[in-house]
Design brief:
- The protein has about 550 residues and is mainly α.
- Among the domains are: about 110 residues; about 140 residues, no CATH class.
- The chain has 32 helices and two strands.
- The radius of gyration is 38 Å and the shape is elongated.
Length: about 550
C-alpha cells in the first residue's frame, strides 16, 4: 500500500468514527488536531495549532498532521498550518512529502501551488524516485509544472526506470504545451531511459508530440534496450505515424530487423495506405525479407492488410516483378501451412476482379506454388468451375487420400480412380450437413445435372438426411428453415422422377473408365492431356471432365 493509499484509508477511518466514540480517542494534541480537522472546526483547529509546541511531531501511526490536512483538502485549514514558521513542509511518510501527496489528489492544483509558494523542497522524489515535476506532468498541469520549474525543479531528474519528465510528457498528445515548456527550460531530448527510449521514441504514438521533438533527435538508428529491440523507424511504423516518412529521409534504417524478427516492411503492410510499403520496397535490401519473423506474403494475404483492392494488386505485381520473386514464394511455401489456400481466401475476401485474379493465380503457379486437392475445393467454392479451377487442375496436384469434400464437383474431378456412383455415394454418406443444409442441398441439386442418383443414394437420403431436415423444421433450429424446406422439396421430386441414367451419362462414365485404365491415368492433368491428344471435340471433352452438364435442370 502506497503512502497515499495508507493515509487515505486512515482519513476515511477517522471520518467514519461516530461521535459517541470520540471519548475513547487518544488524548494527544496531534489527535485532537486531527479531530478538529475532520469535524471541519477551523477555529478549534487554529486554537490547537497556536498551543502546539511541535506541530511536526508524528503521532503513533507515524505521520504528521500536514499529510492529513492535504488529504482532507480543506484549504482554510492548510493556510492556518502554513502560517506556522516552524512547519516542516518536507516531512515524509512512506516516502511521500506533502507536495508529492497533494499531486496525487483529484483537486491537486491549489494545495500544490500553496505548498510551492510556501517554500517546500520541489526536488524531493518519492521512494520510486518520482519527482513532483513528473507527478505534475502526469496530471497535465502546465501551471503547476511551471511553478515547480521556476522554484528549482530539475527538468531532467529521472525516476526509478530512468524516465524523465519529458518522457512522461510525450506519453499524451494533449501535453504538447508541457513538452514545449520543458524544452524551453532545458529538458534533454536525447536522454535515454533504462529501456533505451529517447523522449522522441516515446512520443511516436502521437504525430503532434513527435513533431515537437523531431528537430532535437540526433540519431534515428538507435534501438531500444528492452526485449523488443525496436528501432525508431519500427516504433513509428507500429503506431502508423506518418512521421515515419521523415525518419526515413533523415537516415532511418529501412533494413533493420529486431531481435523478434520484425522489419519495417511488415509493419507497413498494416497501414491503410500503401505509400509507405512502396517507399520501403524501393529503398530496402530485398534479401532482408528472409530474416523476418513472418513470410511477407503471409502477412500480405492476411486480413490485417488493409490496402484497397487496386493498390493491393499493384503492390503484389511489384513483388512478383522483383528479382527474388521465386525466393519469396518459396519462403511462403516453406513457412506457411496451406499457402495456396491462403492466397485463394485473400483473393476472395478482397473481391479481386476476375482478370487480375486469374493473372495472380498463374503468377503463383509459374513461381512453383504447389497445389493440393483442398485448394481445388476452395477455389471451386469461391469462384465456381471456371478458369481459376481449371488453372489448378492443369498442375500436378498433391492428392490426399480418397475423401469426398463438401463440394461434389471437385470430388468428381480429382478422384480419378473411382467411378462416378462411388463418389456420389461417398458424398451422401460422408458429408453430413450441420449448419450448412442449404449449401448441401444445392450441391445435391447440382449433382442431378451430371448424374442419376442410384438406389443407394436414395436410401441414404431418405433414411439419414430427411429425418435431419424434419428435426430442423420441428425444433426451429437454424435460420434458413424456409429455404431448407423448399430445396428439400425440389430434391425429393427429382429423386422420384429421375430413375434411369441417360445413354449419354452411361457413355461418359464408360469412356472415362476405359481411358483412365488403358492409359494408366494418374491425375486430372494427365487425363486432360490424353483427351486432347485423342483429338476429341471440345464439347465431348467438356462432358468428360464435368465442365458441361448432361442434364438441364
Amino acid at each position: 500500500m502506497s503512502a497515499y493509499e495508507h493515509l487515505l484509508y486512515y482519513a476515511r477511518e477517522i471520518v467514519n468514527i461516530k461521535k459517541n466514540l470520540w471519548p475513547n480517542w487518544p488524548n494527544s494534541l496531534i489527535d485532537c488536531l486531527i479531530k478538529a480537522l475532520h469535524t471541519g472546526d477551523v477555529e478549534k483547529f487554529k486554537e490547537l495549532v497556536d498551543n502546539c509546541l511541535d506541530i511536526n511531531h508524528p503521532n503513533e501511526r507515524g505521520f504528521s498532521l500536514i499529510h492529513l490536512v492535504i488529504l482532507v483538502e480543506n484549504l482554510d485549514i492548510l493556510d492556518i498550518l502554513l502560517q506556522r514558521p516552524d512547519i516542516n513542509l518536507n516531512v515524509q511518510f512512506l516516502g511521500e512529502t506533502p507536495l508529492s501527496l497533494s499531486l496525487q489528489l483529484e483537486n491537486f492544483k491549489e494545495p500544490a501551488i500553496k505548498l510551492i509558494n510556501a517554500g517546500c523542497d520541489v526536488t524531493i522524489p518519492n521512494d520510486d524516485f518520482i519527482t513532483p515535476l513528473q507527478l505534475a506532468v502526469s496530471k497535465n498541469s502546465l501551471e503547476v509544472c511551471e511553478a515547480l520549474v521556476k522554484h528549482g525543479a530539475n527538468v531532467n531528474a529521472a525516476d526509478f526506470y530512468g524516465a524523465t519528465p519529458l518522457h512522461e510528457a510525450v506519453s499524451d498528445p494533449v501535453k504538447v504545451p508541457i513538452i514545449q515548456m520543458l524544452l524551453f527550460y532545458g529538458a534533454d531530448p536525447t536522454y535515454r531511459c533504462d529501456d533505451g527510449y529517447t523522449p522522441f521514441m516515446r512520443s511516436l504514438h502521437s504525430y503532434d508530440a513527435a513533431m515537437e521533438l523531431l528537430e532535437y533527435e540526433v540519431d534515428f538508428n538507435i534501438s531500444t534496450k528492452d526485449h523488443l529491440r525496436s528501432s525508431t523507424l519500427l516504433l513509428a511504423l507500429s503506431f502508423k505515424n506518418p512521421i515515419a516518412f521523415e525518419i526515413i529521409k533523415r537516415g532511418g534504417d529501412v533494413n533493420y530487423v529486431s531481435t523478434l524478427g520484425d522489419h519495417p516492411l511488415q509493419d507497413a503492410i498494416f497501414w491503410k495506405d500503401p505509400t509507405m510499403f512502396k517507399e520501403l520496397w524501393l529503398r530496402m535490401d530485398k534479401e532482408v525479407i528472409f530474416c523476418t519473423s513472418f513470410p511477407i506474403l503471409d502477412l500480405y494475404f492476411s486480413e490485417f492488410c488493409h490496402f484497397n483492392v487496386n493498390e493491393w494488386i499493384d503492390c503484389l505485381y511489384e513483388i512478383f516483378e522483383s528479382d527474388i520473386a521465386f525466393d519469396i514464394v518459396d519462403s511462403y511455401v516453406c513457412l506457411t501451412r496451406n499457402p495456396f489456400s491462403s492466397v485463394i481466401e485473400g483473393l476472395a475476401a478482397r473481391m479481386v476482379p476476375k482478370e487480375d485474379r486469374i493473372k495472380i493465380i498463374y503468377l503463383f503457379l509459374s513461381h512453383s506454388m504447389p497445389v493440393e486437392s483442398n485448394d481445388v475445393y476452395l477455389m471451386y467454392k469461391h469462384f465456381g468451375y471456371n478458369e481459376e479451377v481449371e488453372a489448378l487442375l492443369l498442375t500436378e496436384i498433391d492428392q490426399s487420400p480418397f475423401t469426398v469434400n463438401s463440394c461434389l464437383l471437385p470430388s468428381l474431378l480429382l478422384t480419378i480412380h473411382s467411378d462416378v456412383n462411388t463418389i456420389v455415394k461417398s458424398f451422401i454418406e460422408d458429408y453430413v450437413p450441420t449448419f450448412s443444409f442449404p449449401y448441401f442441398l444445392k450441391e445435391v441439386l447440382l449433382m442431378f445435372q451430371y448424374c442419376t442418383p442410384t438406389e443407394e443414394f436414395k436410401t441414404v437420403y431418405f433414411q439419414t438426411i430427411v429425418p435431419m431436415i424434419d428435426f430442423v423444421d420441428n425444433t426451429g433450429w437454424g435460420s434458413s428453415n424456409k429455404e431448407i424446406k423448399e430445396l428439400n422439396s425440389v430434391v425429393m421430386s427429382k429423386l422420384y422422377i429421375r430413375t434411369v441414367p441417360s445413354l449419354l451419362e452411361i457413355a461418359r462414365n464408360a469412356t472415362r473408365t476405359i481411358i483412365i485404365s488403358k492409359y494408366e491415368i494418374k491425375d486430372f492433368f494427365q487425363l486432360q492431356k490424353t483427351f486432347n491428344c485423342l483429338g476429341l471435340p471440345k464439347s465431348v471433352i467438356d462432358i468428360l471432365v464435368f465442365k458441361l452438364p448432361i442434364y438441364d435442370e
